[in-house]
Amino acid sequence: MSSSPPFPLLEIRNVKICYSGIPVISDLNLSVRTGEILSIVGESGSGKSTLINAVMGLLGSEGHVTKGEIFFKETNLLSMTPEARRRTRGPEMGMVFQNHASSLCPIRTIGAQYYEAVKAHRKISRDEVEGLAAALFERMNLKNVSRILASYPFELSGGMSQRVGIAMAMLLEPALLLTDEPTSALDVIVKAMVSNELKKLRKEKGTSIVMVTHDIGLAAILSDNIAVLNQGRLVEYGATSSVIIDPQDDYTRELIRAVPRIVKR
Ligand SMILES: Nc1ncnc2c1ncn2[C@@H]1O[C@H](COP(=O)(O)OP(=O)(O)OP(=O)(O)O)[C@@H](O)[C@H]1O
């Protein structure tokens, strides 16, 4: 008996995305299996954030998917009601925003926002949420849990805020984690540590991760597959080893050439 391959967790089919009628993504096809790490690489303005915001249903009032389908667990997200879509955000799909602090309410503490994020989907006490946050903060090398939980978003540095954002998205153990430049504000050591934690998350929980990044070097270390976007079009897409070793597109070659190398003398 022949068995057909499992349906991907996420499948983007022939998608076109416009802001106020102006197309920024065209004819885009991508899929992500359970437990896969996919990096979406490209220069500023190539449409990386637009694509993951479309998956999350967070394009804003001007942005629309005008063509195609986005399947998550075999359901077309684009035909779901706004309420059903809202329920998928958090427990099914988590998002780490490029600027995490600005995605939070500025006048409420991190602890209060953590508690609410979990309470909206699960019956849980404040102490239990703090326990979960403490374990995740430790993994992210964030010291002084109570101080962070008592802080307001503006009181955290960029690097702390990014790690708090990753921990917050991991709290509900989503099947799919979408991350927008998750390590851009981190120094080299913390960047390596956060990258390791993302890998561990995939290994331990089978989480699928879509990582948007400018950094094809980081994509090469972390991901199974790489998609390269240039001006809203997919110019290269495949297994990380083939994209890095044998890129077919000039733009991908340029991105790879731009990665600094450490030369041992
Ligand atoms: N809300 C919006 N309204 C109108 N145009 C937008 C909006 N958001 C993004 N764009 C445009 O869509 C295009 C893609 O932007 P997007 O932010 O997705 O690119 P990106 O690859 O993520 O860039 P970066 O790496 O700088 O974040 C750009 O031309 C941008 O100006």
Automatic annotation (TrEMBL):
Keywords: ATP-binding, Cell membrane, Membrane, Nucleotide-binding, Transport
All copies of domain ABC transporter, residue ranges: 10-256
A Pfam cross-reference name: ABC_tran
Domain of life: Bacteria
Sample GO molecular function, one term: ATP binding
Stretches assigned to coiled coil: none
Annotated compartments: Cell inner membrane
PROSITE patterns: ABC_TRANSPORTER_1, ABC_TRANSPORTER_2
Lipid bilayer topology: Peripheral membrane protein
Chief place of localization: membrane
Family statement drawn from the similarity comment of this UniProt entry: Belongs to the ABC transporter superfamily.
Protein name in the entry: ABC transporter ATP-binding protein
Organism of this sequence: Desulfofustis limnaeus
